[in-house]
Structure formats: structure tokens, C-alpha cells
């Protein structure tokens, strides 16, 4: 995959998945603006990329505000002359149950994930449209945003909202030849190391041990590097015809998520639906098709 001459901004790329994305984009030839809130972490990420022969600079700003978004775009233009690829990866967690979640915990996650994705994409879209040569916007979703997860009201709302924005932006930016897609990754990061059923696999990766096929295939779980190829692909000319999609990646698993769709439809005969009519129809027409919540994971091998 050749990204020579492309310029990319990757938010939240000091460590974890973001660093894997930035590293892979640089390995494929792109010049990369690395972003983190910690200057030392950002500088270390740049050093690792340049040490491997890539091109990267650091922009230290907390993603969320319009000013931060513009600073990232301006850094790409000032150092490399243009902007071709935006990867919206920055995120934080403030997990707790609904009845314990504070306004501050909710707002912090939504500001970074959802508002940050909006402000960065808006600033990037303005620049890409001015350049007139198209572009790539890649937004990072989560299985939690697709199906929900206990204790993650704020995160689920933000990640679901991101996919909703992706599908809208794919329509709005099509004439400018800017594709917009969501990546739904599963990997060993600070955001997954606290999940109990994933801990043995996180520990195995940390110890340099290979993961069993159940983890890599059925769970679609692996290292951040396993998810990076999809980002490079979506950033490339090979993905010019792909937009508005949510694509899952993790371990050995690559998957295309569907958007929500109607699964059962019934019609009233010109009268509309009263509560009593719904109660009478529901058991036979709808009850058997109720949708699950949360990830429905296969049982591990005995």
C-alpha cells in the first residue's frame, strides 16, 4: 500500500491504537501529524516513527474544541503543505452505571469522542474541499456503540453518534470526493485491559505469547497492529469507492457492520395503532424478533 505524498492527521496517536494507525500510515509513506495531550508521549511516538524511517511531527492539544481541530489541520498544512487523511481516534473512558454517572463524566467522554470527531472533521473537510483533490476521513467507532455495553452510557452514546455522523458526512462530502468511513476495532489497549473476559488475552499479548484462534477469530481480538492495516487501506486510493461504511477489525477478523434496519413491519388498516391494538399484535408479530443488547460472544472452547 503506497501512501507516498499523502499527509495524515491522527488524533490520540501517542499510544495504543492511535500510535499503531500513525505508524502504519507512515510506514506506507504518508507524512503524519501525531497528536496527544501529553507532550512526552507525543514526542516518543514521533521518535519511534522517524526512527523507523517515517515522517512525523507532534501537535499537543486536547481534542474537542474548534481551536484544537484547527491547530491540527494548520500543523499538517504548515509542515507538509496539505491534508489528505484524517483519522479521528482520540478518546477517553469514564465508565460507571447510569445512576452513578456525573454530568462531568458524561460531558468529558462526549466532548472528546463525539464533539472532537465533529470539530476535527469539519476543519479537515474545509481544507480538503479547498484543495479540490478529495480526501479520506476515518472515524473510530466501537462495538459498544453498535450494540451497547454495561457501564458505558457516555461511551456508547458517543460511538453510536460517530457512526451516525459518518453516514451523513459520506453523503455531504461525496461531491468533493472525500470518503468517510468508520472503523470498529477490538484490540488490547488501555480501554480493553480492564474487561474481565479479555484479561487473559491482554496478559498473553503483554507477555509476547500468541493468542489462540478463539481469541483472534471468534472474538476478533488482537494487538493494535492487527487493526492498523484497515486504516491504511481506507486511506489509500484503493478505497476510493468505499464510503459511509462501518468496518470491524481485530485479530484475524474483518467484518462489515450493517446499519439498523426494520426487521418486522405490520400495518393497521387506515386507523393507526392504538395501545390495545399494539398489545394484541405484539406477541405473534414482534416478540420473536426482539433484538439483543450487548455483544453476543461465542462460548470459549472447553
Structure, described:
The protein is 43% helix and 15% strand. It contains ten helices and eight strands. α2 (39-51) links the parallel β2 and β3. α1 packs across α9 (224-235). The longest helix has 29 residues, at 103-131.
CATH architecture: 3-Layer(aba) Sandwich
The share of residues in extended strands comes to 5-15%
Instruction: Report Rg.
Output: 21 Å
Principal-axes geometry comes out as globular
Q: Which key phrases capture this entry?
A:
globular, Rossmann fold, 15% strand, 302 residues, alpha/beta, eight-stranded mixed β-sheet
Task: Summarize, please.
This protein has 302 residues and is an alpha/beta fold. 43% of the residues lie in helices and 15% in strands.
Task: Note the topology.
Blueprint: E1 7-10, H1 16-27, E2 31-36, H2 39-51, E3 55-60, H3 66-80, E4 85-88, H4 103-131, E5 135-140, H5 143-147, H6 153-172, E6 178-185, H7 199-206, H8 213-218, H9 224-235, E7 246-250, E8 253-257, H10 275-285
Parallel strand pairs: 1-2, 1-4, 2-3, 4-5, 5-6, 6-7
Antiparallel strand pairs: 7-8
Helix pairs in contact: 1-9, 3-4, 4-6
Amino acid at each position: 500500500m503506497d501512501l507516498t505524498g499523502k499527509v495524515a492527521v491522527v488524533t490520540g496517536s501517542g499510544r495504543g491504537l492511535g500510535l499503531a494507525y500513525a505508524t502504519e500510515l507512515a510506514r506506507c509513506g504518508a507524512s503524519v501529524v501525531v497528536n496527544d495531550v501529553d507532550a512526552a508521549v507525543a514526542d516518543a511516538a514521533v521518535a519511534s516513527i522517524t526512527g523507523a524511517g517515517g515522517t512525523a511531527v507532534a501537535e499537543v492539544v486536547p481534542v474537542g474544541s474548534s481551536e484544537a481541530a484547527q491547530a491540527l489541520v494548520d500543523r499538517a498544512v504548515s509542515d507538509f503543505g496539505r491534508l489528505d487523511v484524517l483519522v479521528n481516534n482520540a478518546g477517553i473512558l469514564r465508565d460507571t452505571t447510569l445512576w452513578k454517572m456525573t454530568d462531568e463524566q458524561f460531558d468529558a467522554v462526549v466532548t472528546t469522542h463525539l464533539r472532537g470527531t465533529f470539530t476535527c472533521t469539519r476543519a479537515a473537510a474545509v481544507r480538503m474541499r479547498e484543495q479540490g483533490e478529495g480526501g479520506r476521513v476515518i472515524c473510530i467507532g466501537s462495538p459498544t456503540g453498535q450494540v451497547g455495553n454495561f457501564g458505558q452510557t457516555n461511551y456508547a452514546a458517543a460511538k453510536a453518534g460517530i457512526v451516525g455522523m459518518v453516514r451523513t458526512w459520506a453523503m455531504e462530502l461525496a461531491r468533493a470526493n472525500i470518503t468517510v468511513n468508520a472503523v470498529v476495532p477490538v484490540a488490547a489497549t488501555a480501554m480493553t485491559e480492564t474487561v474481565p473476559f479479555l484479561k487473559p488475552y491482554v496478559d498473553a499479548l503483554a507477555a509476547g505469547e500468541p493468542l489462540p484462534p478463539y481469541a483472534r477469530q471468534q472474538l476478533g481480538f488482537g494487538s493494535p497492529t492487527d487493526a492498523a492495516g484497515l486504516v491504511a487501506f481506507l486511506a489509500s486510493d484503493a478505497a476510493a469507492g468505499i464510503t459511509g461504511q462501518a468496518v470491524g477489525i481485530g485479530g484475524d477478523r474483518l467484518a462489515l457492520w450493517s446499519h439498523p434496519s426494520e426487521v418486522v413491519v405490520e400495518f393497521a388498516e387506515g386507523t393507526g395503532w392504538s395501545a390495545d391494538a399494539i398489545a394484541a399484535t405484539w406477541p405473534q408479530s414482534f416478540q420473536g424478533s426482539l433484538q439483543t443488547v450487548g455483544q453476543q460472544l461465542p462460548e470459549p472452547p472447553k
